[in-house]
Design brief:
Number of strands: 13
Mean pLDDT: 84
Structural class: alpha/beta
CATH superfamily of the largest domain: von Willebrand factor, type A domain
Distance between the termini: 60 Å
Radius of gyration: 36 Å
CATH architecture of the largest domain: 3-Layer(aba) Sandwich
CATH topology of the largest domain: Rossmann fold
Largest sheet: 6 strands, mixed
Oligomer: single chain
């Protein structure tokens, strides 16, 4: 099987017909000028060693050389072997709280940025697991379906912000409900949901919903962000704090982390509560230890084709034809003249 790494370079092949066209135009122009200068027999006497065949051959060699170099740029890839690759891992979904309370700065730089950092470092330590992202505030929505593309996971994580959801509040129950649709029912992989939140919940019966998730085989690990003392919610413009969020009575809102809610969710599903306000390194160690205890299963099997680069052959042929073209003179060769293949008359 042959594949082309960069087939866009095939467009350069249009240079070859352009060169041939220029050669033909030049040839007919010279013939017309020669007729004005002298008749054919006289011109043959004046330039007896001129060889049309060699001129054509030089153009052919130039075209072959360019064609080979273009193919080298395209880089043909030829399959050399096949192998069966099996992936082992678990299906992990990150439920990330993007409510306004996550802007509180009781942890540096704020709760939301800390949660992004934790997710990115968890992803850096994964190998073979599939990952998805759910964002939630007053409602939950899918941010990234289950994938093994860790680069995409980090990119989508970085794009999370508190303006993504129009309905404010914190509906942890909505995130848990949505997570149930993320996992593939046909596969037998273990299912893990990491909920990163400050624990504030404004809707839903979390106990019943957590039990339903457990029945679906989902283990929930909660990561608490923020402090029990709490902090005000800054409203910024161009990175500068303009004011702090106030309630209807005009009092500054202090958002506090509800660790107990998060602990109850984890306990109901056989998961674990992890204190996320500590140093990120310590949080990641806890996560790694938790994932070690979860059995990894085969969830995907593919036949992959290994390819070998073939551009070097075409570079070699391209240089070879180029050297031959440079060494080839347009004059007739003396020994060819002596053969007199075309039975030309000699004076």
């Amino acid at each position: 099987m042959v594949e082309f790494e960069k087939d866009i370079y095939f467009w350069f092949l249009w240079i070859i017909p352009a060169i041939v066209l220029v050669f033909l135009l030049g040839f007919f122009w010279k013939r017309r000028v020669q007729k004005k200068f002298a008749d054919k027999d006289l011109f043959e006497r004046l330039s007896p060693k001129r060889s049309l065949l060699k001129s054509v051959l030089k153009i052919v060699l130039i075209s072959l050389s360019l064609a080979c170099l273009v193919v080298a740029l395209v880089n043909p890839l030829i399959g050399s072997s096949e192998e069966t690759v099996k992936r082992k891992g678990v299906d992990i979904v990150f439920g990330m709280d993007v409510s306004k309370s996550m802007l509180a700065e009781d942890i540096v730089p704020n709760r939301l940025e800390k949660s992004k950092r934790i997710v990115n470092e968890i992803v850096d330590n994964l190998a073979g697991d599939r990952v998805g992202i759910i964002a939630y505030a007053g409602s939950a929505f899918p941010q990234l379906p289950i994938t093994t593309d860790y680069g995409a996971v980090k990119q989508f994580t970085q794009a999370l912000n508190t303006d993504m959801v129009s309905s404010q509040g914190t509906a942890i129950d909505e995130a848990i409900k949505l997570s149930k649709s993320y996992y593939d029912d046909e596969s037998r992989t273990k299912r893990v949901l990491f909920l990163l939140s400050d624990g504030e919940n404004h809707a839903g019966n979390l106990e019943d919903i957590s039990k339903e998730a457990a029945e679906k085989g989902i283990r929930i690990f909660t990561i608490g962000l923020g402090t029990e003392k709490g902090a005000p919610i800054p409203i910024k413009k161009n990175g500068v704090v303009q004011r702090y969020k106030k309630d209807r009575q005009g009092e500054t809102v202090i958002t506090k982390t509800n660790h107990q809610t998060l602990k109850n969710i984890a306990k109901a599903t056989g998961g674990k509560y992890i204190e996320g306000s500590r140093q990120t390194k310590q949080v990641i160690e806890d996560v790694k230890n938790s994932l070690k205890n979860i059995e990894k299963t085969d969830f995907e099997s593919k036949r992959l084709q290994n390819y070998d680069d073939q551009f070097q052959w075409f570079v070699g042929f391209g240089i070879f034809f180029m050297v031959i073209e440079i060494l080839l003179l347009e004059r007739k060769t003396s020994w060819v003249q002596r053969l007199n293949l075309f039975k030309e008359k000699r004076d």
